[in-house]
Amino acid sequence: MDKGNLGAGAPRPLELSRVFPAPRELVFKAWSTAEHLKRWFSPSILTVPDATIDFRAGGVFDLCMRMPDGQDSWMRGHFTEVTPPERLAFDTVVEIAGAPRFAVKTIVTFASEGAGSRMSVHQSYVIHDANFSGAVAGAAEGWRSTLDKLEKEVERLKAGDKAAVVHGSFSVERTYDAPPAAVYRALTDKDAKARWFAGGDDWTLLEREMDVRDGGRERVRGRWASGVTTTFDAIYHDVVPDKRLVYTYVMHLDDAKISASLATMEISAAGKGARLLVTEQGAFLDGYDDAGKREHGTGMLLDMLGDFLKQPG
What is the pLDDT of residues 129-159, one digit of tens each? Predict the structure, then answer.
């Protein structure tokens, strides 16, 4: 049995938080690539010369921290959760001199707070080598100077080129136990779509208009519990009943235009059911980068569509 699980010697979990004068999407982004983490993910006297980050659940989290004397320690593990821009978690083992010394489970949450955001960190530990208990005992101080460096990275991101456009694309596919005509109706009938195309319990509908035809428009506006208003404005360019929809849309957060996208929905028969493939190319505007939130949200909406299609009538 591991010493880290025994009695009074078991290290206590660490909990800390800090408020950043930036939206949580930006703070979340600072975790998303090796390039970002190399600039800040270490206490002040250490550097990060090497890192491999695959920012998705199951993706690799390998990061090297180097002491001033040249000694390296590695955090090797994987992400267990990546939910933009709200939460991420990863499990790692710290290797020093080529041997595992202790294991770390890290959970990070991001919440809007006033004009900024609060990032909270929870870490728990399992000691493999009692000689390295002191490294865990000093984690709180190490995190303090690490978050000082994160503040600088967030400021660097905020000061980036505000005219920059970040491009992204993704495809999401679902198969439903419903005929293509039923899927098409759920996508194009105003009353049917209103039953699944929404933000959830924390979201209140303010406006909904829908006219699915070549040149027709769709507009959905709602307010989250945080007070932020989202607006989806779409124009349909190609409508083939039971087979295809092609449209462009612009998204707003309050009065800020954050993206312009081209989306294609392709419906095809799949046995007795239907296959829906959604492909989207997006341009994220003026420094806004959703860090994968758009793809995640699309998947959630298609799952809600699946639940709707299971309902009788």
Answer: 988 888 888 899 899 999 999 999 998 888 7
For residue 9, pLDDT over 60 is answered with no
239's tokens: 């409508």
Render 14-38 in DSSP notation, one character per residue: EEEEEEESS-HHHHHHTTSSHHHHH
Answer yes or no: are the C-beta atoms of 31 and 119 closer than 8 Å: no
Residues in contact with 174: Cβ distance below 8 Å, sequence separation at least 6, in sequence order: 275, 276, 302, 303, 305, 306
| 11 closest CA partner among 143, 139, 135, 126 | 126
Under a CB-based contact definition with an 8 Å cutoff, are residues 266 and 251 in contact?
A: no
Q: Mark out the alpha helices in the chain (DSSP H runs).
A: 24-29, 34-40, 133-137, 139-158, 180-188, 190-194, 293-309
Domains along the sequence of the chain with CATH: 3-158 (3.30.530.20), 165-309 (3.30.530.20)
Report the C-alpha gap between 39 and 146 in whole angstroms.
10
The residue with tokens 């919440």 is 111
CB within 8 Å of 160: residues ≥ 6 apart: 287
HSE-CB for 55 with a 13 A CA cutoff: 20
Query: Distances from the Cα of 95 to the Cαs of 56, 119, 121, in angstroms?
Result: 23, 27, 21
Contacts of residues 39-42 at CB distance under 8 Å and 24 or more positions apart, as own/partner, are 39/149, 39/152, 39/153, 39/156, 40/146, 40/149, 40/150, 40/152, 40/153, 41/146, 41/149, 41/150, 42/146, 42/149
Q: How far apart are CA 64 and CA 72, in angstroms?
A: 6
Is 0.90 surpassed by the pTM of this model? Answer: no
18 bridge partner residues: 119
- Sequence length of the chain is 313
